[in-house]
Amino acid sequence: MSIDHERGIPVYEQLAEILRAQIASGELQPERALPSGKTLVQRYGVARGTVDHAIALLKEEGLVYVLKGKGVYVFKRS
Fold first, then answer.
1. Could you list the residue range(s) of the whole structural domain that residue 26 is in?
2. Residues 76, 30 contacting (CB under 8 angstroms)
3. pTM beyond 0.90, yes or no
4. In a domain, 22, yes or no
5. What is the number of alpha carbons within 13 Å of residue 42 lying toward its C-beta?
6. Beta bridge partners of 71
7. What's the N-to-C CA distance of the chain in angstroms?
8. For the chain, how many structural domains are there in total?
9. Which helix (H) or strand (E) holds 39?
């Protein structure tokens, strides 16, 4: 999946959609860290603020949590 800057959906929502799909498919596994913000910036060609906004959406949805100084982790689903 990739970001389409010409698409009518905000880039942060597209990134959240990509990460959401990776969580749903198991590519991003429960209790494991997401790629770093720097990695996501480089991989998807977006700004750091875009990454932060996408992570905030996933956090609001209860899909991820943040451990200060450690990273962003996928919640374990029961």
1. 11-74
2. yes
3. yes
4. yes
5. 5
6. 67
7. 27
8. 1
9. helix 37-44
The candidate with the shortest Cα–Cα distance to 15, out of 33, 42, 40, 32, is 40
What is the C-alpha separation between 18 and 14, in angstroms, rounded? Answer: 6
Q: In 37-57, which positions are buried (b, 16+ CB within 10 angstroms) versus exposed (e)?
A: beebbeebebeeebbebbbeb
Residue 37 within a domain: yes
Residue by residue, pLDDT tens for the chain (78 residues) are 889 989 899 999 999 999 999 999 999 999 999 999 999 999 999 999 999 999 999 999 999 999 999 999 999 876
The CATH number of whichever domain residue 22 belongs to comes to 1.10.10.10
CB 41 within 8 A of CB 78: no
